[in-house]
Specification:
With 267 residues, the chain is of the alpha/beta class. The chain contains eight helices and ten strands.
């Protein structure tokens, strides 16, 4: 049965998000994380890289300082969402595919063993945007899930639903969100979680995204997300969803409340 109200987010139990770059977590699961934390659920975030390649504006965001800048941005973002547990995996931005897969999976197994999550959120095998780091992190997370997650743990993959793609496809193309051949689009009715956000949660998500200015300044300017008016673009973007049956041990899930993913190292 699809989870489609904020009161049911607690059914996800302890949530572990496994992502590639700072900002992936906010774009793809910020609202869900905030709701879970307000309800008293445990939320843990894992980030594989510091996102040191994630800018095309080297004058405004010098690459030599970008890793430190994005580290600080992520700390501010997670504070807004109420998430206090975070792990870095210390891989190079853009270099996950060349990393030692066995070592990476072992790191994630240790985290899963420690956290004992009920739900793991990560990218689907397509990487949501097609980004190689996203696809590699999906592979690592899936392997670690299969190796060590407790029975009944759910693995949910970020995905793009038909209705989201129809509404936001033009904007995504204009902003260069997806690599050629992407996104992979899933039937809307196959979502396991499709969660409209209340106004106050939307505000938290917008604040969390704004905290990661190196990645979100163009989007904020494009959509006027600083506006708090009811009916503003940000409100209509505030959807979270997951594909696949909610009770399935492994279900593909669209956990993004925004129509786009992060830009780190991808455009």
């Amino acid at each position: 049965m699809m989870i489609d109200t904020t009161s049911r987010v607690t059914e996800l139990g302890t949530i572990l998000g496994i992502w590639a770059h700072p900002d992936d977590e906010a774009y793809l699961a910020g609202g869900m994380m905030a709701i879970a934390r307000r309800a008293g659920s445990r939320v843990v975030c894992v980030t594989a890289t510091r996102g040191e390649l994630g800018t095309a504006d080297n004058l405004r965001w010098p690459k030599l300082r970008l890793a430190r800048t994005r580290t600080d941005e992520l700390a501010r973002c997670l504070a807004v969402l109420g998430v206090t547990e975070h792990h870095w995996l210390a891989y190079r931005d853009g270099g996950c595919a060349a990393a030692d897969e066995g070592a990476a999976v072992a790191q994630l197994c240790e985290i899963i063993d420690d956290v004992r999550p009920d739900t793991i959120l990560t990218f689907g095998p397509d990487g949501f945007t097609g980004h190689p780091d996203h696809r590699t992190v999906s592979s690592w997370a899936t392997a670690a899930f299969a190796r060590t997650a407790a029975p009944g743990t759910r693995l949910m993959y970020a995905a793009v639903s038909e209705n989201r793609n129809a509404r936001w496809g033009e904007l995504n193309e204009r902003l260069g969100v997806y690599l050629p051949g992407f996104p992979v689009v899933h039937p809307s009715e196959s979502l396991a979680v499709d969660l409209p956000l209340d106004d106050d949660v939307v505000d938290l998500k917008v604040r969390a995204l704004a905290a990661q200015e190196t990645q979100t300044s163009a989007l904020i300017e494009e959509l006027g997300m600083r506006s708090t008016r009811r009916g503003s673009p940000r409100r209509h973007m505030s959807i979270t969803g997951c594909t696949g049956p909610a009770r399935s041990p492994i279900c593909r899930s669209r956990v993004s409340q925004m129509p786009i993913d992060g830009f780190a190292g991808s455009t």
